[in-house]
Amino acid sequence: MSVPSPSPTSKPSARSLSVMLWLVAIGFFMQTLDATIVNTALPAMAASLGERALAMQSVVIAYSLTMAVMIPVSGWLADKLGTRRVFFGAILVFTIGSLLCASAHTLDELVLSRIAQGVGGAMLLPVGRLAVLRTFPAERYLPALSFVAIPGLIGPLIGPTLGGWLVQIASWHWIFLINVPVGIVGCVATFIFMPDSRNPDTPRFDLPGYLLLVIGMVTLTFALDGRTELGIQHAAVLVLLILSLAAFVAYGLHAVRTPRPIFSLDLFKIDTFSVGLLGNLFARIGSGAMPYLIPLLLQVALGYTPFQAGLMMLPTAAAGMFSKRLVTRLILRYGYRRVLVTNTVLVGMTMASFAFSTPGEPLWLRLVQLAIFGGVNSMQFTAMNTLTLKDLGTGGASSGNSLFSLVQMLSMSLGVTVAGALLTTFAGFIGHHVTGSAVIPAFHATFVCVGIITAASSWIFAQLASDLHRTAKRTDPSERT
């Protein structure tokens, strides 16, 4: 996604610039909030829709996978159609998707509505950030982008608690309905205040490469989740896995032969980027699974109310914010390789430690456990992100950052997919319709498996050079989660 000079327009007023920053910030907040707010509401949704609480992962997967699919096309659309038109369309689609989610009467309707919501959500941050870069002078980029990023960091922190509170005082429908008035105001403000810019020299979109990536991501997700949720037979799962692998390989061959692919394979010649990207993909599978698993464990197995389950996630968020300052000092002292290898194993062990959760576990111990997980998990994100982006330079920053964002959303989707598949499989050994403390062994086995997957990804970071320069550069705050 390039950042060319905007097409000639009148210079926006200070008021327009201020309103635009708030628009982009609120859009990013809505996007990140809806990625986590549903987690504590899943059991209530299941009861309302007549589904099993342990088979609701598609609600989360549909949103995150759609966002991953739409990221490559969002920048091109903004270049071609203009930032104001695309940002307006993103808010409108997101708002309509939210209204459809609240109106859903079946799980299939809810999943389709979440896809619509994800289409709009995927374009809110990239297009909004592009509008900021094209409108603000270079010396104001950093404070402007920092202002935009702060609400995006707050969204995931309050999402689980807000979702649980809304479910408890009203119903799960309100976690989507709260987006509607905000979206209406956002559409009006965008139409009035958002400066419009486009790139008249927008290159032709790499449609074949895009379709290959989409086929690869979607078939991989269906292969992992289809057996447990859709009842796909083993032979069909194998065919989907082969198709996914073939699509990714075909994209690699296509990218070599195409002058301007969506993502150039030259990015993988940068050692820190390639290791960081692959490490992010596999380590984040566990990190993407935990926000789905923990609220389910607390409500389905341990008897917490939705609001109580949401409150229990606050120590995770608080410890995560505190540890971000610590990880930079550790990297400067010990280097990326040692910090990432050690911390990845610690994250995996902490995930596996939830296998010891029981109804009789003291509250203080559970809070400490959640805080420790939040701390090491946040350190993992910060270290992986700085490693991945630190050596991109200006030439590959745009393409590399977009690919990195895609991998983040894909791994979040895969995390919930893997967790849902494992949980459903282990619950099947016990009995699909068991509830309460009887289902705890299924959660225990799932946490152990997720922990092993995460700890095993430390081998990827072990491939880093031991003498890698120990400089932890500050990245764009919006990319730290």
UniProtKB/TrEMBL annotation:
GO terms for molecular function: transmembrane transporter activity. It comes from Paraburkholderia dinghuensis. Residues 20-469 form the Major facilitator superfamily (MFS) profile domain. This is DHA2 family efflux MFS transporter permease subunit. CDD domains: MFS_LmrB_MDR_like (cd17503). Pfam families: MFS_1. The chain crosses the membrane at residues 56-78, 85-105, 111-132, 144-166, 172-193, 205-224, 230-253, 273-294, 306-327, 339-357, 363-383, 403-430, 442-464. NCBIfam families: efflux_EmrB, PRK10504.1. Its main location: membrane. It is a multi-pass membrane protein. It comes from the Bacteria. Keywords: Cell membrane, Membrane, Transmembrane, Transmembrane helix, Transport.
